[in-house]
Amino acid sequence: MIVAPPPATEPRAHRFIGKKRRPVEDRRFVLGRGRYAADITLPHLHHVAIVPSQYAHARITAIDVSAALAVPGVLGILTGPELRAKTKPLRQYLDIPGVEWFPLAGDVARYAGEWVVAIVATERAIAEDAADLVAVSYEPLPAVLDPEAAMDADSPPVHPSHPSNILYQRTFVWGPVDADFAAAPRTLKTRYRWHRSATVPIETFSVTASWEPGTSMLDVWASVQMPQFPEQIAEALSIPLNGVRVHFDVDVGGSYGVKRGIKHGVLVSFLSRHFGVPVSFVEDRLENMRGGDMHGPDRIFDVEAAYDDRGVVRSLRIRTIDDEGAYPGRSPLQMGKPVGAIVGAYAIASVQYEAIAVTTNKAGQVAVRGFGQAPTNFAIELTMDRVARNVGIDSLEVRRRNFIQPEQFPYTIPSGTAYDSGDYPTVMAKAEALADYAALRRWRDAARAQGRVAGIGIASCIEPGGGNAIFQALFNDKDKTTTFPEGCQVKIDRTGTISAQIGISSSGQGHETLVSTLLGEIFEVEPDEIRVIHADSLAGLPSQSPVASRMAIVLGDATVGAARRLKDRMLRIAAHDLGRAPEDCEWNGTSVRVAGADGAERTWLEIARIAHLFYHRLVPGMEPGLQTQFVIEVPTGGTLPTAEGRVQMYPCHSFSAHVVAVEIDRGTGKVHFHKYALAHDCGTVINPDIVRGMVMGGIAHGIGAALYERFVYDDAGQLITQTFADYMMPTTHEVPHVDMIEHETPSPFTSLGQKGVGEGGYMSTPAAVVGAINDALAPFGARVDHAPVTPVDILECLQ
Amino acid sequence: MKPVDFRYVRPLTLADAIAALSGADGDGKIIAGGQSLGPLLNMRLARPALLVDVNAIPEFRNIDENEDVIRIGATVRQREAERSAIVARRVPLMRDALPHIGHTHTRNRGTIVGSIVHADPSAELPLVAVCLDAVVEITGPGGSRDVAIADFYLGYLATDLAADEVAPAVRFPVAALPPDARRGTAFLEMARREGDFAIVAAAAQIDVDLRARRVIDVRLGLTGVAGAPFRFHAGEAMVRAATDPQAAFASVARAAAEAIDPDSDLHATAAYRRSVAATLLERALDAAWLRALVADLHA
Amino acid sequence: MSRHDITMIVNGKRIERSVPARRSLADFLRDDLQLTGTHLGCEHGICGACTVHLDGVPVRSCILYAVQADGAEVTTVEGLSPDGTTLSPLQDAFVSCHGLQCGFCTPGMLMAATALLRENPHPTDAEIRDELGGNICRCTGYQQIVESVQQAAREGFVR
User: Fold this and answer.
1) Could you give the 3-state DSSP secondary structure of residue A321?
2) Of C148, A736, C114, A284, which is closest to residue B105 (Cα–Cα)?
3) What's the pLDDT at A407?
4) What is the spatial distance between Cα A487 and Cα A539, in angstroms, rounded to a whole number?
5) Among candidates A375, A523, A545, A366, which has minimal Cα distance to A469?
6) Which ranges constitute the DSSP H helices of B31-111?
7) How far is it, in rounded angstroms, from Cα A37 to Cα A632?
8) Could you tell me the domains of chain C?
9) Which fold has domain A372-466+650-798?
10) pTM (2 decimals)?
C-alpha cells in the first residue's frame, strides 16, 4: 500500500543540496581527533580478554580459573553458567524456541572461537596473561559444517532443543510459476555458491559500559550500528529501558552492517554491574574474526529461469540455503529483505522463492551491507548472463530486453513491492557510453584474437532504500512490528544559531553533513554554521538506526519536516509581531517581510529573540523558544505482509549499471581490471562527494567478495582465515580507478526526491566482476558460479 | 593481542648480544626488523622470556663491498638495500626481488638478514640467497662459523641457527664478470595481492658471454614449492648445455614442473603451484636473457 | 614485569616515561600519551592504521615496542597540524576531496602520504597507490584518497 507523499520540493534551484561541500566530520578525523570507542577513558576502567572454545562442538565439562584469578591485576572472571543464570538470552528474530544465544557458552560450545570465559583486569595484557592460565576441559562432539549436510535429519544437532538444524524454511509462490515454466520455450537451472565473507571494518567492535549504582543507570559507549541496541541490553539484563543510556556520539570506525555487538554489549554491561567498575572490551582481531559473530551471508542458490528465444525471462524459481552458523540472531532475515527486489530490474512476471536457514558449528552470521541483496543479485545477474549466452545475445542486450520500462512506474513486482521510480534503460545507456562499450568489445575481440583472455561483464542492480524492516514480520508471524521510525530534533537558540540532534551513531556516512546541508537549505543559512550532535538513547528520538541505505530518506525527511515546521513557526512569530496575517508574509532570505512590500521586516535573530525572551510579543498560546521534534515512519511502511508473503518492502529504489572489462593472465589466472565504469541513480543527490564515496566503497567491498575474501573452515571446524594474512582485503592495487556518472530519477516518496546509496556498489560489483570473468572464460567452454573466484579456480578453467 | 611479559635488552656489541642470549637458556629471541617476529609476539605464538634487540650494534648496519663478495649486516633494512647502488650493481637479483617484499613501510624496518634467517618458505630473500650461494655468518657462545646456504635451511621454518646464536651478516659471493659478459636477472612472483607472500616465485640469473653467445653461468630457483627454497641445478645444467639457450627455456620450465612436489594449502593447490612455477620460471628466463643481451633493460 | 625508563621526542616534545617491555609503541602513544589518533586495526602489521614516523620513516607501530623507540623521534598524526587546529595542506586536501569516511585508517594514510610527498612532491597515481598499498581502507575504495594526495601535491605540500 502506498502512502501519499509529503509536500513537493521548493521550486527554485538548490543552493546547497547537490553542491560540493566539505563534509563536516572529516576535519576531526584528519586531525586525528576522532573519538572511537577504544579512545574513551574512564576512572577505574578495567579491560576484558576472552577465552575461546578450541573445538567446533564440545561439551564443556570443567573450567578451572584458580590460576588465572591469582594473576595480579585480575579483578574477576566470569564463566557462561554464571552469566546465563543472571541474564536473559539474546534476541532471536526467527521463531526458534530451543535456540538460545548468550554472550558466553554454557555447557556446550557450538563453534571454534565461541567465547567461553571472560577475564576482567586492570590492563588488557594482564587479562590475556590470565586467559592463558584458564584451563577448560572439553569433550568433543561431532560437528556439522556443511549447510546441506545440516539439513539431513541425521546430522549432529547444533541445538538439540530445536527439532532440527533447519531453523526456517518457507516457500513463497507469487504468480502462476508452474504454468509459466510449463509454457516457456526454454528453461535453465544453475547453482551458485556465495561463500562466507564480510565487510570487515578496520576497527573491531569495542564497547565500554559503566553501571552507576547511585542512579541505577547503565552508560554504554559502543562502536555500534544496530537497531534496538539499547533495548536488547536492557532486555537481557532486566534493566528498565530508561535505565540504559547508549551514547551515540561515538565515532564508529566503519561498520557496513556488521557492528551489531549484541553479545559484546550485554557481556560488558553485565561485567560492569557485576564487578562494580567501568569495563571496556576492545575485540582483538582474532577475537573478532573467529568469535565476534561478524561473518556475512553464506549461501547456496539454486535458480531456475523460464525464458523465450529472445531472452525475455518470464519466471524465476529461487531456492536459497543460508548457513547461519551456530547463533543466528538477525541474520536469517537477510533472506527476507531481497524479497523486495526479487526480480531485480526486470519485468519478470512470477517468482517462486524458497528460503532455508540452517545452523552449523560455525561463527554466527551478521547483517552485511545490503542485507542479503548482494548474494541474491549475484544469483539473478549471473542467471541473466546465462540466458543471454543461451540465446546468443549480448549481456547488455539481455538486460535491455528485460528491463522494467520508465513508463511502467510505480511498478509492482510479483512479491508485492512497488518500485517507486527509475529509468533503467537511460542509466544503462549512460554506463554504456561512459565505458565506451563498443570500443571495449573491439578491445576484447582483438585481445582474444591474440590468444589473450579478456572479458566484459555487465550488472544491473536495484538498491532498495528506506529500511522498512517488515521482513521481520515476513519471517516470523509472531513479530507484528510495522514501525520503523526516524527522528530529528532541531533547536534555534536565543542567539539564532541552529543545532540538531540525531539519535544514531555514524560510521562514515556523513550524517552530520547530511542534516546540516538540509537544514541550511531549508533555513537559507550556511550549513557550516549549523551544529549537528548525536544524542544518546535517552535524549534521542525513536530510531531504527542507519541501516538499509535509509538515512538520506528517513533522517532526511525528518530533518526537512522539523525545519519546515520551525520555519513556519518563525514566520508566524514575525507575522504576529508585524501585525499581519501569516498568509500576507513571506521569507526573504533570512528575514520575514510583508509580501510585496518594502520596509518592515523581522530578521532571523529578531524572531529568535522574540521566541526566547519577549513573551509579550510572542503569538498567544505559542510555546516559548524555537525547538521541535519530528519523527516519521518510513515512507510506504505500516502494513503487514499478506498471507502469501506479499509486502511493500522498502519505499525507494536506486539503480546502477556496471560495466567491467578484465584481462586474465593465462599463466597464473590472475585478474586485471582493464576498465570499470558505472552509472548510478540514487534520486536527488545531496552531497556529491559523499555519494561518490559510498559507491566506490561498495565497489571495493564487492571486489573483495568477488576475488579475495572468504572465511574458510577446515574439516575440524577451525577457522583457518583468522588474520589479515589469510583473509585478504583489497588494497590500492586491487581496486581499480572507476569512472562514474550519475542520473537522477527522484523518488515521489521523499521530500526532495532523495533515495539511498550506501549499499548499491556492493550489491552490483560481484556480479559484474564474475560476469566479466565468465565472459573471458567462455571461449574455453568454462564458467564459474561462485564467489570469491580465485586464480586457482580460473587456471583450472583455462587448462 | 598483547605479548607475554618478556625482558628486553638492547646490547651495543655482538658479544653482549650472545651473552644475553646464553643467559636466557634457550628462551631468548633476537629482534631486528620485527616485521615477522612482532606479529608472532602479539599473537603469543612466540613466547620468549627475553627479547634481544640488535638494532643498536653498530657493525650490523653496514653493506660492505669487496672485490668478490657483498656482505650485508644484520640490521640493514630491506629499504636501504632497495636503494643501495652497491646492491643494484653487484646483487641485481636481490634488487629485483626487493619490491615484491611486503610494502614500503614494512621494508623500512624489515631486514635482509632477518628475512633470510626467518626462513619462511614463501619468502623472497631466502630464494635469492639460495640462488646466489650465500653464506650465513653465525656467532654463538662457542665462537663463529660460516654456513653455506645450501646447508642452512633444514625444513619448514627450520634452520641451522641455534637458539643461542646470532647471524651478524650474510655474504653474497659476487665474482666479477669477465669482459664481454653481461648479467641479466629476473624475479617474478605470483601473489594474491601486491605485497603478499608469494604463492610461488621464480628467480633467474643468466651470465652471457656476448661475443661467444654462450651462457657462462645460470642460477635458477623457485620458492613456495617446498619447505625451503628450491635451487634448480638440473635446469641450470640444461641451460648451460643448450646450443640455443632461449629455445630451451620451455623445456627447462617443464622439467621444473616435474622436479618439484609442492603442497596444497589455503591459498593454492599443488597442481596450481606446479603449473605457475613452471610458467614463471620460463618468463623469468626469458626476461633475464633479454636483460643480459640488452643493457639498460633493468631500469 | 620488566619496566624500562624511556625517552623519546614525540611530535617535537621530549617525553620521559616508564613502560613494560611488551608495550607496543602504538599502545604507548595511545594509552601513556593519550595520543589516540594512532589506531589499532589488526595488531599484526598488515592494515597500516597504526602507521607513525620513526626517525622520519613510516613504520607500523603495532609491531614495534615502545622500548625499541627509546631515544628516537616519533611523529604521529597529531603532529601534522602546526598547532593542533590548523589543517596542514595534506589534511586540508583530504577534507576537500573527501578522502575518508569513517576516519579510522586516515591517520595511517596521512602519515604514509606525508612520507611520500616529502620524497616525491609530484607522484603519479601509480606511485601514490604504491606507497599507500600497505594501508587498507574499507570505506572509500581509495579513489578519493588518491585524489586527495594529488590535490595536496598540486597545492604545494609544505611539511
Assistant:
1) strand
2) C114
3) 97
4) 12
5) A545
6) 37-42, 78-83, 85-90, 92-97, 104-107
7) 29
8) 3-79 (3.10.20.30), 89-155 (1.10.150.120)
9) Aldehyde Oxidoreductase; domain 4 (3.30.365)
10) 0.97
HSE-CB for C105 with a 13 A CA cutoff: 27
Q: On the CB side of B33, how many CA atoms lie within 13 Å of its CA?
A: 26
C-alpha span between A32 and A10 (Å, rounded): 39
Residues A262-314 pLDDT 10s: 999 999 999 999 999 999 999 999 999 999 999 999 999 999 999 999 999 99
**651473552: which residue's cell?**
B19
Beta bridge partners of C13: C10
Could you tell me which residues come within 8 angstroms of residue B218 by beta carbon, excluding any fewer than 6 positions away? B204, B205, B206, B207, B236, B239, B240
Residues of B265-279 as b/e, b for ≥16 C-beta within 10 angstroms?
eebbbeebbbbbbbb
CB atoms closer than 10 angstroms to residue A591: 16
- Structure-block grid coordinates of residue A289: 574474526
Residues of chain B contacting residue A733, judged by C-beta atoms under 8 Å apart: 193-195
Is the backbone peptide bond immediately before C89 cis, with ω within 30 degrees of 0? Answer: no
How many angstroms separate the Cα of B10 from the Cα of each of B18, B57, B106, C51, C69? 12, 8, 21, 23, 11
Query: Do the Cβ atoms of A556 and A687 come closer than 8 Å?
Result: no
Q: Which amino acid is at A296?
A: G
Q: How, if at all, do strands A217-222 and A244-247 pair?
A: parallel
Q: Which of B41, B122, B190 to mutate to test the interface with A (most CBs of A within 10 A)?
A: B190
- CA atoms within a 13 Å half-sphere pointing along the CA-CB vector of A653: 30
Residue percentage of chain B with pLDDT more than 90: 90
pLDDT digits (tens, 9 = 90+) for A134-187: 999 999 999 999 999 999 999 999 999 999 999 999 999 999 999 999 999 999
- Average pLDDT of the residues in B265-277: 97
Distance CA B290, CA B298 (A): 10
Grid cell in block for residue A453 = 583472455
- CA dihedral over A71, A76, A80, A85, signed as positive or negative: positive
Q: Do B169 and B147 meet the contact criterion of CB atoms below 8 Å apart? A: no
Output phi, psi for B190, to 5 deg. Answer: -110, 115
Q: Tell me: domain A26-34+485-633, CATH 3.30.420.130, correct?
A: no
Query: Per the structure block, which three cell numbers stand in for A365?
Result: 552470521
Q: Do A731 and B193 touch (CB under 8 A)?
A: yes
User: Are residues A253 and C104, on separate chains, in Cβ contact within 8 Å?
Assistant: yes
Range(s) of chain A covered by CATH 3.30.365.10: 26-34+485-633, 372-466+650-798
Separation between Cα atoms, residue A772 and residue A396, nearest integer Å: 12
Residue C157: pLDDT band with limits 50, 70, 90:
low
Q: Closest approach of chain C CAs to the CA of B55, in angstroms?
A: 9
Mutate to test the interface with A, among C143, C148, C159 (most CBs of A within 10 A): C143
CA distance B117 to B104: 20
Domains of chain B as residue ranges with CATH: 7-53 (3.30.43.10), 58-173 (3.30.465.10), 181-293 (3.30.390.50)
The helix/strand/coil state of A30 is helix
Question: Å from A734 to nearest chain C CA?
Answer: 9
Torsion of CA A282, A285, A289, A291, to 10 degrees: -40
DSSP β-ladder status, A108-109 and A186-194: unpaired
The ipTM (two decimal places) reads: 0.98
For residue C26, the chain B residue with the least C-alpha distance is B2
d(CA C134, CA C44): 13
Closest Cβ–Cβ partner in B43, B266, B268 for A726: B266
Residues of chain A with pLDDT under 70: 1-12
